[in-house]
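Ticket opened by: R.M.
Priority: normal
Category: complex prediction / small molecule

The reporter submitted a protein together with zinc ion and asked that the result be attached to this ticket for the collaborator who will pick it up next week. Submitted input follows.
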Amino acid sequence: MSASQRRKTYRIFVLIPCDMKMTLLYILLAALFTACGSTGGTSATNDATADTVAAATRPPFDADGALELTRQQCDFGPRVPGTPAHAKCADWLVATLQASCDTVMVQSATVQTARSGKVGIKNILGVINPETSQRLLLLAHWDTRPWADNDPDEANHNKPVMGANDGASGVGVLLQLARQLKADRPALGIDILLVDAEDMGVNENEESWALGTQYWANHPHVEGYKALFGILLDMVGAADATFTREYYSVLNASGFVDLVWRNAAGSHFINSQGGAITDDHLFVNRAGIPCIDIIDMRSDSETGFCPEWHTVSDTMDAISVATLGEVGQTLLNVIADIER
Ligand code: AHN
Ligand code: ZN
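Result attached by the on-call engineer:
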């Protein structure tokens, strides 16, 4: 038992009111605690007990909060780079992160897209515990696709996607997580990176996806930025989501994939090998940070994704509070596990 734990025992003892029976009870308890500390030889057991208690006392993930934060993004309309809704949502994301994080940074840039020429983008970063060297990077894209080009109705192919699942869900979970970590501070440093222009890509060109992340990887917000690991959330809101072990995640960070799936807070996490996805995590890995992708992949669909993917049906109707909750709780579990 550490000196600080012994001090805590003492403090509890002196705060007890002067009822004689209670005092005796607490003397007995304090003696037991002190004896436990003085034997000294069981530190591993004691540490494990302390950590279990700490993890158990961390409040559960608030899925309703994540749902509301997902809805609030959709209330702006599709967040297509270059549109007023995109600009308004950026301001809201900054303000929302500012309420939870120690520092918020915005990275503005102009990038070349495959189909829409040059466009202005914003990567938005919330930093928790900026002084801590042991860091975890959490990412999600906040932009939405300008074209519902997988919609069954061709008339919708040039309409924008609402992106309740494809965009807002991952951001909603991360904003809620930041909110909870403010009240219940982690020992780890946490960087919440909301990346822009993930979804302006075209099939035949890998580099046309994840433009915000590519920009960040080439211009990190801190020179020589390092994190232990990264976790990307992509499409984490569908009722029947299946999160399998994505190929590049296993290739670059198999031990960390094991850790995350071991901490999975429900049955949407499936401990089997999934397909390979060109997504933000690919460019984080190329920048030297082992990064995994928690992404809803479907073995039973032609696209490999949910039926609403890149259609006008990717709206709040297709979002499940239970799935958001499972992903958020898994992140809380992972943070507690790394801190152990
Ligand atoms: C490709 O289709 C190559 N990647 C999918 C990445 C993505 C798009 N995630 C969400 N929207
Ligand atoms: Zn998409």
